[in-house]
Known about the structure:
The complex is a heterodimer.
Chain A: H1 2-14, E1 25-36, E2 39-46, E3 58-65, E4 68-75, E5 85-90, H2 98-104, E6 110-113, E7 131-136, H3 140-152, E8 159-165, H4 174-183, E9 187-193, H5 198-204, E10 212-216, H6 219-231, E11 238-241, E12 257-261, E13 266-270, H7 276-282, E14 300-305, E15 308-310, E16 316-317, E17 322-325, E18 329-331, E19 335-337
Parallel strand pairs in A: 7-8, 7-10, 8-9, 10-11, 12-19
Antiparallel strand pairs in A: 1-2, 1-6, 2-5, 3-4, 3-6, 12-13, 14-17, 14-19, 15-16, 15-18
Chain B: H1 10-30, H2 33-59, H3 62-89, H4 113-126, H5 157-166, H6 168-175, H7 179-183, H8 189-195, H9 197-217, H10 222-248, H11 266-275, E1 279-280, H12 284-289, H13 296-301, H14 310-323, E2 330-331, H15 333-346
Parallel strand pairs in B: 1-2
Helix pairs in contact in B: 1-11, 1-14, 2-3, 3-10, 9-10, 10-15
Amino acid sequence: MQSHTFRALSRRLLRLHPADSPPEIRARVVEVLTETPDARTFVLRPNRHWTGHRAGQHTTVEVEIDGVRHRRCYSISSAPSDRHLAITVKRVAGGRVSPWLHAHVRPGHVLRLGPAAGDFGLEPAEVAAPLLLLGGGSGVTPLMSILRDLVDRGAVRDVVFVIHARRRDDVIFGRELEAIAARHAGLRLLVELGDLDEVRLARQVPDFAARTTLLCGPGGMMERVERMWTGAGAAARLRREHFAAPPVPTPAPGAPVAVRLTGAARTVIADGAGTLLEQLERAGERPPSGCRIGICQTCKCRKQSGVVENLRTGAISSDPDEDIQLCISRARSELRLAL
Amino acid sequence: MTPPSRTLTRAEADAFGRELDALRAEVLADLGQRDVDHIRAVIRVAHRAEAAGRLMLHFGLGPVSFVLGSGALGVAKILDNMEIGHNLMHGQYAWTRDPALDASYEWDNACDGGDWRHSHNFEHHTFTNILGKDRDVGYMFLRISPEQRWHPHHLSQPIVAMLLALNFQWGVATHDLRLDELIAGKQTWAQLRERARPFLRKAGWQLLKDYVVFPALAAGNAPRVVAGNLVANLTRNLWTFAVIFCGHFPEGVRLFHRDEVVDESRGQWYLRQLAGSANIEGGPRFHVMTGHLSHQIEHHLFPDLPASRYPEMAPRVREICERYGQRYCTGSFARQFGDVLGKIVRFALPGGPRRAVRPAPRCERVRSGEAPRLAPLGPAASPPAIGACPSASAR
Lengths: 339, 395
């Protein structure tokens, strides 16, 4: 308590850090492993502010690229008991952060992380149940954390791990999975090249509907699996982790969209024709505002997700957790605002 | 002196505005590492100057370390208030998404950041130089233009201005309290008490920090630390007073009546910002020490762009102004400050060479599609007298 007061006082006296900022989780890169031609694992040693994770969770990585901070979510691929933390990142062609991580991050580099988040994973009671881990592409990363956790706990009893990849070279963790399968009779590993084939899957895993299934992969694959499980009456046994696809802007400005005000827990329908400030005021909200022409920053607020158009610059931006000025922004997709 | 600005039609004003928008977009697209490197370097220098200054005041003996120490602390406060605080609080670095460079920065000044963002970012930058709307025109008690109505109290303004210069941070800190409205009976004591809360909190902390906590930490050297902080605050006060008074009060800067800006377009908003501001010439270090408010014109045209970009934008702005026949008011520090001091003395007396008020650029009420526009100010029946300030919009 005293040291906290002293820190707060010295911070205010010397103004070394922005006031009230939570302690930063930073992690030093210990090792960079090439998993496939376009996937790399970054092995990290976090500072004491990292409070650990549950198998299946993800973390937020924040990097500064050309002066601008960007944040992205990545699944953790290491087990909770591992000495180091690992994230595995697939390079997204045309993306901003993943190609940068691949090109610039080397051992010794320090990354800023967010606390572990997400509720994908196994409940303690499910560990002993027959399991099916179903991953596509980079969707294998959270499943790897879960499998490694089972291995650590000596709980690989009846696990089927199905991986879908485009080519053999694209199978992330392929060699390690084979090694685990060789050591554990309870793990059956199936590597499938190409798209999901429901008939083939039902033939290979005839008892799929009876297994607690953890699914993570591209949107198309997940939809097909969900239909298949629903058809078999097994939807309750299916756990899913969606990698958030970037929100798609509405094709034409003016289409109505829902704006969620997460602080007030209200949802407002914006017709997308005017500025967000006008739309919110028309709906009876009273967000703080000033000049209404984009100069005074009074109406600045945090956009948690969604696409907005800046009416002064015409720029369309879909970055999560970005500050926008309501008076010069127009909704171009569903939005979540911290209001 | 350059000839007065040509009156532009609305179409010309909008073309002028589009050229400035294009320049703004160009710089916006170019923002990057260089800009964060600059502001972080200035923050580093300010921190080191403060640390060096305080160490010399706390542990030094004799006059040399006192002068150096309070000087370094003064420089730290100037950098903190001008290039760092003023510019961060405008949101000039919000695009970096670095919380340390956010507009919520709290500066080493008695003025509360929230009060400042309201009175400066919103009121002053939106209603720049509009009589009765911009409370920065003479700060509601100085007469710096013949268009302001004379009152007998203006006779004392040379002395009042001098006192303001010495205590400038307190002038800034109490600006948003609207004490003039209390005197005019337009604000009750209860309203003032409510309004003064952030000011009291912030000013209390500043006084505690500079005149109690730091002196207490210096134990036996306490009187020296008190004196050093006083000198540093005084240095910063005089410097910021001089720079800021050169921004809008020199010769050639004009005021606007409320009925001139009804339904103002974006281009016309740019024209008003240009006509209402004045630059000071100088070198790169001088510009940093003024927080680049030596480029007041560029700052008023582009208040949300990193100020360190103003010097490179200035020649382009000037060239655009020349093509549109617009006056670009600039001069040496001595000339601009001389103008300001001259005005403070001259307009202490009634009258003055009233400029022919140009016919207001009447604008047809065309709504320009989706472009955001200035909130209509509402037509005024007659030009309002200064000192009788209509209350601004809600916070």
